[in-house]
Every structure is written in C-alpha cells, then in structure tokens.
Amino acid sequence: MKKIFFLLGILLLSGCSGAGKREKNLIQNDHAFIKGVNLYHKGKKKEALKEYEQIYKNDSKNLMVMKEMAIVNCELGNKEAAIYYLEKAYEIAPNDESVIKNLANVYYRDKQFEKAEKYLNMFFKNSNDNDILKLRGYIAYAKNDYEKSYNYLKEVQEEKYDMRLYHTIKNNLIKLDKKENLYSLLNKKYDNYSNERDYIILYCDSLSTIFNEKDSATKILLRYISEYGGDDELFLILSTLYLENGEEKKALNSFKLISNNYKYKPEYIELKKSLNRNSIEN
C-alpha cells in the first residue's frame, strides 16, 4: 500500500513539474511576443523576427507567431521563408481567411500567379472584399488582361488614397483607350483627395501629359503647395509645367526652390539642361 502511495506521489509531482514548465514557457512566449511586436513597430524587424523564431522553437504550432514571422519575412524580402510559414499556418488552420489572403499575396509578389489564384479561388467569385478585389485586379494586370483588371479594381471601396490602386486603374484605362473614363474618375475623386500629395502628383501628371491641360495642372499644384507646403519633387513638377507652358521666368523661380539634395536626380539634371537651353535661345 505504501508503495502505491509512493508511486502516486511521484506521478503527481512529475505532473505538477510538467504543468509548471508549460506555464513558464507560456509566460516566456507571451513576453517574447510582446517584445517582438514592440520591436516591429519601432522598425526593428530583424530583432522582432528573432523573438518570434524563439517562440516558434518552443511552440511550432503557434498560429499567431507563424503569421507574424511570415509578414516580417515578406517585408524583409525573404519570400521563401514567408511562404514556408504561411503554408505551415495553412496546414493548421485551412479556413483562416487572413492566412489564405496572405498566401495569395506573397505568391503574387513572388510572381507565382497560378498559386496566388489557387488561394484566391477559395473565396467567392463575386466577393467584395477589398483585399481580394485588389489582388485579383493586380494579377490580371500582370497578365495583361486590362479589362478584367479594371473591372475588379473599379469595385474597390477604398477608405484612404491607395497610390498603387489608382496608378493601376490609370494604366488600365490608358491601355483600354478609355481616357474619358480616367478624366471623369480623376475629377470625381479630387474633392476626396485634394489634400493627398501623391494623388495631386498623379492628377497633375495626367492632366498635363494625357489631356494637355497644363494650366489646370499648374493651378491645382499651386493650390496644394500654398495650403500644405512644397518639397523638391513638387517644385520640380511645377517648374516643368511652367517651362512646358512657355513661362520661363516662373519656371526658373520654381527651379531655384529645389534643394541641393535633389540635384543628382536625373529629372533635375534634365530640367536644368532644358532651362539652360531656353535661356541661350532667348
């Protein structure tokens, strides 16, 4: 009888010891995860990855950590590692929408379009999810199917200005020779994005180069600079618009606002040559 109690005591102690170890690991993993998230948000992605990798060694089925490792690896350019961890996550959680979306995204970024579409096809064909619409549109564009790409991307309900989205839509409409659609879209969205620098650049460039409305482009750019301030790129665009419009003095004055940090840019050097040629000719 004593022997039985002795054995039972050993089993209970070993059980408590195992539970304590597991609890300790869980606490360590939680601390490492929080530390990894903080490092990531500070821009220290490699250091964050080390924290996640340590957790993964202790718990190779930690779905949250696999997702984070995939994201960080993808942002660091380690696409193979990102795919590896996402595929592992998919094995554990095949119905997790974020895993499926990220798999489609990383395969798209790696130009493995068939594999990307394999995962996108797990969603409904008429899905109105913005991430899915964008990926389907970008893949169609990469495959030169501009009509299909445009039909997907025009359905995106954006919450803020997405430069890549609008540049792709613009390129689609130019390829499809639907410039009137582009003109209408850009004018319509101006009220929404009149304070967005990148949208102003896209809008002014389109007005100038596609629709030959240099005066309108100049006025829009001047309004933005007066309200929100200028920078080297904006001053260069403004100077170019003035020069193309035959206003050499204003072009030169705008050019002088560009800092020395920009003087080695090819577009700066080209504009400087054009201004010098105009000065000699006049």
Number of strands: 0
Specify the CATH class of the largest domain: Mainly Alpha
Radius of gyration: 28 Å
CATH superfamily of the largest domain: Tetratricopeptide repeat domain
Give the CA-CA distance, first to last residue: 114 Å
Low-pLDDT runs of 5+ residues are 1-24
Quaternary structure type = single chain
Short description:
This protein is mainly α. It has helices spanning 2-41, 45-58, 63-75, 79-92, 97-109, 113-120, 130-142, 146-153, 163-175, 179-193, 197-209, 214-228, 232-244, 248-255, 266-281.
Report on this structure.
By secondary structure, the chain is mostly helical. The chain folds into three domains: 34-118, Tetratricopeptide repeat domain (Serine Threonine Protein Phosphatase 5, Tetratricopeptide repeat), CATH 1.25.40; 123-193; 194-282, Serine Threonine Protein Phosphatase 5, Tetratricopeptide repeat (Alpha Horseshoe), CATH 1.25.40. It is built from 15 helices and no strands. α2 packs antiparallel against α3 (63-75). The longest helix has 40 residues, at 2-41. The model is unreliable at 1-24 (pLDDT under 50).
